[in-house]
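Request from the bench team (R.T.):
"We need a structural guess for the complex before ordering more zinc ion. Sequence and SMILES attached. Just send the tokens back."

Command: build protein-zinc ion structure.
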Amino acid sequence: MSIASRAASAYEQLRRHSTHPLISDSKAADIARAAVRLAALLGIDPAHVQPNRSWNSLVLPLAPLTLRASDPEDERQVYTFSYRDPIYDDEPFFLLGPCPVCGAMVPLAEVRSLADLGAFLDQGPAPLLNNGMLPNSYPDEFDRDPAHSSTCPFREGES
Ligand SMILES: [Zn+2]
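Reply to R.T.: structure attached below.
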């Protein structure tokens, strides 16, 4: 895909999604810009990134925002990211995946560049030790996430 066609697609996504029947235009535009930034980071057509299930069924709350990126070469391969709040334009994305202990979808890797995703895909989530210490490769958001099961030792405040 050429630079020009990817740029045109980014512009089209912003144009199409900067108004929304359920949320304010400014918030819709913030979400569209975050989705376009994620597509640029991943090097894919912005048409392959969308919030939660679709643009038409945005699910509250929108912060953190959940974005789904499907692989243009295999639509079944979907990467799910969270973003703290689309009102900010300089936050990292967090790749979501199952907690190695409780299986809840939580942030497993901070992704500021394509190489960060590459490192995670190469190494996978580091094994978690019984001592409750979180390996450095995990983001702080891992144990801050309220999605962990109530018995998970990595639910913040219980380890
Ligand atoms: Zn957990």
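Two things stood out. Residues 99, 101-102, 104, 148, 152, 154 surround zinc ion (CB under 6 Å). The chain has a mean pLDDT of 91.
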